Amino acid sequence: MTQHDFKQSHGFRKFFKSQSERFVKSIFVEMMIGHATGLNASYMKPTIEEMAEEYVKAIPTLTIQSAQVVKGMDEKDYTRILREQLLLALGTPKEQIQKMSLEDMEQEEFQKILGEKLRVNGINKCNKQKVIAISEVKEHIDSGFEFVASLSNGEAGVRVA
Fold it and tell me: Are 86 and 7 part of one and the same domain?
């Protein structure tokens, strides 16, 4: 990663934060960005559905495309582009996205994929540690967790790195 890449990434995060906070409570924005929320993490544990409801409030201000471009698109194209952008923002490789039929996918199926990406990427960092089967440790380490401890019952503790 070059210094320029970092600045660009920071710029997108700053844009997301400043625009989202116009419509979404700051605590939700901080959780969406992945920032630590201190004591609030103990008391506020929203579901993925609640986070998605809050995110939807900010979509109009986060949309960069001109209204005329959006008006000229049919619903399937718009759905595909929006879903692709969401998956890219969550770190899904472009090659993997291209293999999916995003425009024809049922909403429930897409929500399931999105929910899993949110969990894997630790968007809701209220849950910094979790217990998993010992056989899943490598998979979790590959997706950004670090090993904490091996438990006597064949499970292991991992935490967001």
Answer: yes
